[in-house]
Amino acid sequence: MKLNEATAHEILELIRQEKATPQQAFDAVLDQVQAKDDHIRAYVRLFLNENRWDPATARVPIPIGIKDNICIKGEPTTCCSRILGGFKPPYDATVIEKLKKTGAMLVGSTNMDEFAFGSSTENSCYGPTRNPWDPGRVPGGSSGGSAAAVASDQAIWALGSDTGGSIRQPAAFCGVVGLKPTYGRVSRYGLVAFASSLDQIGPIAKDVQDAAMLLGIIAGYDERDSTSADVLVPDYTKALIKDVKGLKIGIPKEYFVAGIDPDVKEAIMAAIEVLRGKGAIFEDVSLPHTEYAIATYYIVATAEASSNLARYDGVQYGLRRQPPQVRKTPLIDMYEETRDLGFGNEAKRRIMLGTYSLSSGYYDDYYLKGLKVRTLIKQDFDRVFEKFDAIITPTAPTTAFKMGEKIADPLSMYLSDVYTISANLSGIPAISIPCGFSKEHLPIGLQILAKPFGEQMLFRIAYTYEQSTPWHKKRPPL
Question: pTM of the full predicted structure?
Answer without folding.
Answer: 0.96
